Fold each of these.
Amino acid sequence: MNQQLIQDLENTIQNIPDFPKPGIQFKDITPIFLNPKLYEEVIADLAKFSRGKIDAVCGIESRGYLFGIAIAVALDVPFILIRKKGKLPPPFVGQQYDLEYGSAEIEMRTGQLKPGQRILIHDDLLATGGTTEAAAHLVQKQGGIVSQFSFLIGLKDLGGRKRLEKFEADVHQILTY
């Protein structure tokens, strides 16, 4: 683990208490984008984890795109969007998942992921893992192999990493809170 990168990120990411509701400690990653060198170091770390081990990157809307596209470019592999329901033109495949109160659905276009491709699923944050698990099911529905998950931040007390164990894929997160 790159201790200097961890320290630089911890000095950059802002903790916003009680946002978006009381009791939540929001991790604001937007200051990373004010420092191009730090952003490049994050991409280098995430790309190193996946180099030679994947055939495509799937990024989860919307913050998964912030790093996911750059990871795909760094690795010279395709980037495939995973979007909220109703945002993609057909043909697409969807996956519903449960939220604390209700449910949601994500979708991806069919024909962009090739059967047998090794896939990295990337998002900025791993919390409960519900959206990431749904993304993995979308990949599997199209014959892709979920090889890896990567995140800028993982929240250890919300059970997301445990939820992803069933996919037997490598998991990388730069920061853990």
Amino acid sequence: MELTLEVAQKLLATQPFSVLVGARVTAFGDGGATLELDIREDLQQQNGFLHGGVLSYAADNALTFAGGTALGPEVLTGGFTINYLRPAQGDVLRAVAKVAHATSRQATCTCELRTVDGTTETLCALAQGTVIAVRR
């Protein structure tokens, strides 16, 4: 199967949690993937900032989709770390992940998470993770 943006969008649509948070893949290919979601009130914590769990979700999925550009469609997150840099607030969360290094079995990827408010983007978190190919 050739992995295209359309295929990535269809794969994301099969994930019930991704549908719940309203995530969308907006770029895919050439060693990278971008995942976006609208920042809604029901995704915020008590101080009005986007919940850290939503940031982690976005990093996890963006990293895994990026890894899939190098390893194919059957991949899993092997692990990831995230550093929260500032509270996330704005209109949209954008997670941009890129493959830093890949072998035939695993890919190490990085992800920048930014909030978008109008035309202003603000870096709010950084993540790095390992994506592994599922062999059946």
